[in-house]
C-alpha cells in the first residue's frame, strides 16, 4: 500500500501495542531523527494526523542472520547417504560460501532483507564471517563483503547491526582452518577494524566470536577486553557433537566454560544455546547475558530443542533469529518456538505464565522484543518515546485474523498462520517500499547462479 512519509508528523492508530498490551486510539509523533517523540493512548485523532488503516504493532529485531545462506535454502533437503546431520549440511553449505562474490552477496542480501521486512523484522544482526576472496586472500578493500551487506540494507531500508566474526581454527584439536574455511580467517585486530569500517544512517556494529571451537581462548578474552561497549555474539552449544568436543578438550561444557572463564556480561548474546543444563541456564542468568534462539534453523538442521521454560523462568533476555533463512518471518519463528515445546512436553501454551501473562504469543513477543533490542545494541525498542520509529500495520482483513476478537490479534498472527499479515512497514519514520524492478531482477539472477550445481 502507499502511505505518506510521516517524518516530523503525527500518526494515529485505532489500536496499537503499547507497554506490552493493546491500547486504543493511539497518537504517535515522529521526530526529525526518525524516533518516537511520544506514543500516547486514548487520544482523539487530530485533523492533520495520518490514520493507519489497521492495528499497529512494533517490529522485532532479527538477532541472528547469515545472509549468504539465503542462496542455499531448499538445496539440502535430500539425502543420498546413510547419515545426514548438521555437519554434512555444513560441508555442502560451504560450496556456496566459497563461490559467492561481493556483488552476488549484495544482491542475495537485498532479496533477503526485503523478505525480512515483509516478515516483520526491521533490524537484522548480521553474523558476518564471509570476509575474503574465494582464494582466501583479502580483497583490496578488506571490508568489501561487509559493505555489500550495508549496501543491501540501504537498498531495502532495513536497519543493520554488522557483527564481524573472529574465526581462527577448525576445531578444538585443529589449530588451523580447513581449506574450505579459508574465506573466514580473521584475527582480533581484523575484527576490530571491520567493526569500524562500515557505517550508515541505519547501520551500527558489534563484534562476534564464531564459537569456542573456532577461536583460541586468549583471542576471545582479548576481543572482549578490546570492545567494552556494544553487542558481542557467539555461537554456542548448538550441537551435541560440539558439547562433546568441548568437554573432551576443556573438561567443561561450552556454556559452563564460557561462564567460568570468559566472564560474559550484558554485552554478550549466546546464539542457540540449545544444549544447556539447568545449572548453565542459572549461570547465564547471573551474568546478564542474552540468548538468541533460531527455532526454524534449529529444526531444519536437527539441532534439538532448547529448554524454553527454564530460559523464560530464569529471566534471561531472549531474542529470535532467522539464521540460515529457511524461515524469514518472526510470527512463524514464534510458532515453531512454542510448537517444538508442545511436541516434546506434550503440553499446550508452554510459554504462557498463568496469572502473570496467560497469552502465549504476547509473552513470547514481549520477551523477544526486549531481548532483541539488546542483541542489536539498542537501549529502547518498540512503541515508546525515544525508540526508533519502527512499526508494522496489521492487515485486519487477512483471512487468519478475520473474525478474531481484537484482543486476540497477536494470538492469530502467531498461531493461525497468516500468509500476508502486514499491510505496511515503517523503519525510522519512513514507510518501506518494495524493491525496484532492476534490483529484484539482479537478486533473482544471483540466486539462480549460486543455486546452479548445488541441487544434489
Account of the 3D structure:
This protein has 456 residues and is α/β, with parallel strands linked by helices. The protein is built from 14 helices and 17 strands. It has two domains: 10-58 and 382-431, Urease, subunit C, domain 1 (Roll), CATH 2.30.40.10; 60-375, Metal-dependent hydrolases (TIM Barrel, Alpha-Beta Barrel). Strands 6, 7, 8, 9, 10, 11, 12, 13 and 14 form a nine-stranded parallel sheet that branches. A four-stranded mixed sheet has the order 3-2-1-4, with no helix packed on it. Helix 8 (278-287) links the parallel strand 12 (268-272) and strand 13. Helix 2 (102-118) crosses helix 14. It starts with 9 loop residues before the first strand and ends in a 5-residue tail after the last helix. The model has no long low-confidence stretch (mean pLDDT 94).
Amino acid at each position: 500500500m502507499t502511505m505518506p512519509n510521516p517524518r516530523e508528523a503525527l500518526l494515529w492508530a485505532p489500536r496499537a501495542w503499547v507497554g506490552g498490551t493493546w491500547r486504543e486510539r493511539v497518537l504517535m509523533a515522529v521526530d526529525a531523527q526518525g524516533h518516537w517523540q511520544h506514543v500516547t493512548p486514548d487520544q482523539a485523532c487530530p485533523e492533520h494526523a495520518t490514520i493507519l488503516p489497521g492495528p499497529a504493532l512494533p517490529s522485532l529485531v532479527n538477532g541472528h542472520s547469515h545472509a549468504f545462506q539465503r542462496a542455499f535454502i531448499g538445496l539440502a533437503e535430500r539425502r543420498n547417504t546413510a547419515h545426514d546431520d548438521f555437519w554434512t549440511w555444513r560441508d555442502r553449505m560451504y560450496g556456496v560460501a566459497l563461490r559467492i562474490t561481493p556483488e552476488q552477496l549484495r544482491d542475495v542480501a537485498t532479496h533477503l532483507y526485503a523478505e525480512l521486512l515483509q516478515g516483520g523484522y526491521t533490524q537484522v544482526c548480521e553474523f558476518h564471517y564471509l570476509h575474503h576472496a574465494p582464494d582466501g586472500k583479502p580483497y583490496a578493500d578488506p571490508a568489501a563483503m561487509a559493505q555489500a551487506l550495508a549496501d543491501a540494507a540501504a537498498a531495502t531500508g532495513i536497519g543493520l547491526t554488522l557483527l564481524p566474526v573472529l574465526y581462527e581454527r577448525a576445531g578444538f584439536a585443529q589449530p588451523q582452518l580447513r581449506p574450505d574455511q579459508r574465506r573466514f580467517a580473521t584475527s582480533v585486530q581484523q575484527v576490530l577494524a571491520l567493526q569500524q569500517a562500515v557505517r550508515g544512517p541505519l547501520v551500527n556494529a558489534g563484534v562476534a566470536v564464531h564459537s569456542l571451537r573456532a577461536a583460541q581462548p586468549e583471542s576471545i578474552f582479548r576481543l572482549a577486553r578490546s570492545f567494552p561497549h556494544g553487542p558481542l555474539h557467539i555461537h554456542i552449544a548448538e550441537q551435541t557433537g560440539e558439547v562433546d568436543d568441548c568437554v573432551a578438550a576443556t573438561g567443561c561444557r561450552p556454556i559452563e566454560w564460557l561462564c567460568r572463564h570468559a566472564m560474559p556480561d550484558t554485552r554478550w548474546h549466546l546464539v542457540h544455546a540449545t544444549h544447556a543444563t539447568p545449572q548453565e541456564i542459572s549461570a547465564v542468568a547471573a551474568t546478564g547475558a542474552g540468548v538468541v534462539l533460531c527455532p526454524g534453523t534449529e529444526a531444519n538442521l536437527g539441532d534439538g530443542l532448547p529448554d524454553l521454560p527454564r530460559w523464560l523462568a530464569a529471566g534471561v533476555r531472549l531474542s529470535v533469529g532467522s539464521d540460515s533463512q529457511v524461515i524469514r518471518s518472526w510470527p512463524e519463528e514464534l510458532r515453531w518456538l512454542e510448537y517444538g515445546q508442545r511436541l516434546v512436553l506434550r503440553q499446550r501454551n508452554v510459554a504462557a505464565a498463568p496469572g502473570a501473562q496467560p497469552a502465549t504469543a504476547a509473552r513470547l513477543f514481549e520477551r523477544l522484543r526486549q531481548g532483541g533490542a539488546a542483541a542489536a545494541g539498542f537501549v529502547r525498542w518498540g512503541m515508546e518515546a525515544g525508540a526508533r520509529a519502527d512499526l508494522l500495520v496489521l492487515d485486519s482483513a487477512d483471512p487468519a485474523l478475520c473474525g478474531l476478537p481484537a484482543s486476540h490479534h497477536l494470538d492469530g498472527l502467531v498461531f493461525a498462520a497468516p500468509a500476508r499479515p502486514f499491510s505496511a512497514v515503517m523503519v525510522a519514520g519512513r514507510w518501506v517500499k518494495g524493491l525496484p524492478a532492476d534490483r529484484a531482477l539482479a537478486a533473482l539472477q544471483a540466486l539462480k547462479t549460486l543455486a546452479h550445481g548445488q541441487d544434489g
